[in-house]
From TrEMBL:
A family per Pfam: Ribonuc_L-PSP
Top-level taxonomic group: Bacteria
Top-level taxonomy: Bacteria, Pseudomonadati, Bacteroidota, Flavobacteriia, Flavobacteriales
Name of the protein this chain belongs to: RidA family protein
Gene3D superfamilies reported for this sequence: RutC-like
Family named by the database record: Belongs to the RutC family.
Xref: PANTHER family: 2-IMINOBUTANOATE/2-IMINOPROPANOATE DEAMINASE RIDA (PTHR11803), PROTEIN HMF1-RELATED (PTHR11803:SF58)
Length: 126
């Protein structure tokens, strides 16, 4: 049985999907981009601010499922320019304990929704 997770503390989906789906004790999140949940505006000041907004959006989705970043077991990071990797990684890493950080892949892509620079999705387990 699946439970749909949606919260107004993260941006509303911009297509036919939900912010996350909980199946048994496993949460599968949709990718988050740097949309500010209250204004609907993109946060594109710089790559660090953009990544922080993505992670704050993800934090809200995890919270809506009664989870935290400690529950995350796998992340996928999609970036439009691998030259931004170290700055993205710096912000991303601040949300995790390095000793218990999740598995991850980082992939450079040609384009992302709304032409943002970074999108992150996660899998978490209670």
């Amino acid at each position: 049985m699946k439970t749909i997770i949606n919260t107004p503390e993260a941006p509303a989906p911009i297509g036919p999907y939900n912010q996350a789906v909980l199946v048994n004790n496993t949460l599968y999140t949709s990718g988050q981009i740097a949309l500010h949940p209250e204004t609907g505006e993109l946060v594109l000041d710089d790559i660090k601010a953009e990544t922080k907004q993505v992670m704050e959006n993800m934090k809200a989705v995890l919270k809506a499922a009664d989870m935290t970043f400690e529950n995350v077991i796998k992340t996928s990071i999609f970036i439009s320019d691998m030259n931004n990797f170290s700055l993205i990684n710096e912000v991303y890493g601040s949300y995790f304990n390095e000793e218990t950080a999740p598995a991850r892949e980082t992939v450079e892509v040609a384009n992302l929704p709304k032409f943002v620079n970074v999108e992150i999705s996660m899998i978490a387990v209670k």
